[in-house]
Design brief:
The protein is mainly beta and about 150 residues long. The protein has a domain of about 70 residues. Strands 1-2-7-8 form a four-stranded antiparallel beta sheet, with helices on one face. The chain has a two-stranded antiparallel ribbon with strand order 3-6.
């Protein structure tokens, strides 16, 4: 809570509000040595590749200022700055070092800041988890997996 006397300033998106998340997985059996018989086929064949792709948008966030604007002793208050403009940057101007427009905010001094809760969106995530593994048959119904 930024301003304990203004509950309306706390209205905003939840911290867990993630608008989009797409997860895709793929499993591919490598054709190498699959037709080989004997020990060579048993050892070198049967490999599989697996990939899990995740694309997700960022979570809501808000700017904080380093000092409390009013020394009111509110232990759970998150001091927010004054908001002068929107604060969002066009996507072609964003970087990890400058994700939002810092000039759209100024330190609130002597009063509670005017920035709302979760007014900005943090960077999203794109990831690939890759694995290569081999199933080795030990008995008819038992397998050992090497990753």
């Amino acid at each position: 809570m930024s301003n304990p006397f203004d509950a309306k300033s706390e209205k905003g998106l939840a911290e867990t509000n993630q608008r989009h998340r797409v997860t895709m997985s793929v499993l591919y059996e490598l054709p190498l040595f699959r037709a080989q018989k004997g020990l060579v086929g048993h050892v070198l064949g049967g490999w599989q590749a697996n990939g899990v792709f995740t694309f997700e948008t960022g979570l809501p966030m808000y700017p904080l200022q380093p000092t409390e604007p009013i020394a009111d002793g509110c232990p759970r208050c998150n001091p927010r700055p004054d908001r002068l403009a929107n604060g969002s940057l066009p996507s072609d101007q964003r970087s990890l070092q400058r994700w939002f427009d810092t000039s759209a905010f100024k330190i609130a001094s002597g009063h509670y800041g005017t920035s709302g809760r979760n007014i900005l969106t943090a960077p999203g995530l794109t990831s690939l988890d890759f694995s290569l593994f081999k199933n080795i048959r030990v008995t008819e119904d038992k397998r050992f997996q090497f990753r």
